[in-house]
Amino acid sequence: MSDESSAAIRDTRKDWVVEHRDMYLSSGGAQGHIMDVTPVGGRSFATHCLVKYTGRKSGKVFITPLCYGDIGGEVVICASKGGADHHPAWYLNIREQEFVEFQVATQAFRATWREPEGAEREKVWNFMVDCHPFYGDYAKATDRVIPLVMMKAIEPIPVFKASDATGIRQF
């Protein structure tokens, strides 16, 4: 998939993503965790988390909603960017941090993160495609290997608020 076609997908979903993030944050996680994403090739009961990280260039704090899976006690997210030919900014930012923060429903955590490799990566990738089929389509649309990030909670933290974010995610 070219970056142009990925941009078209992002434009189509831009308002939905912003509304989803705002709903998740304003409800303290009571809403937005489970969403129907059948219009974009997903499932009617799809799980979403919020990921909070610091921009590697701007130093601003961002909060991004992402589909996730839970495997082996770790929360897994995919750096798919809709099948674009380059990695999403959130992934590049997380790679520069030792820790990450995430929220699932009404619980937030400080976490370590890692990228699975080899046979483990294949197992986790297959699990994520089973949970969120559109990831398989995205992988076919690009030559890059879509990174997986596995986050392991180490301590609970307060749920995220819109005021925590000092930057606005660009789509």
Automatic annotation (TrEMBL):
GO cellular component: plasma membrane
InterPro entries linked: F420H2_quin_Rdtase, Split_barrel_FMN-bd
GO molecular function terms listed in the Swiss-Prot or TrEMBL record: coenzyme F420 binding; oxidoreductase activity
The reaction(s) this protein catalyses: oxidized coenzyme F420-(gamma-L-Glu)(n) + a quinol + H(+) = reduced coenzyme F420-(gamma-L-Glu)(n) + a quinone
Gene3D superfamilies linked: Electron Transport, Fmn-binding Protein, Chain A
Family of the protein in this entry: Belongs to the F420H(2)-dependent quinone reductase family.
Protein name stated in the entry: Nitroreductase
Biological source species: Novosphingobium malaysiense
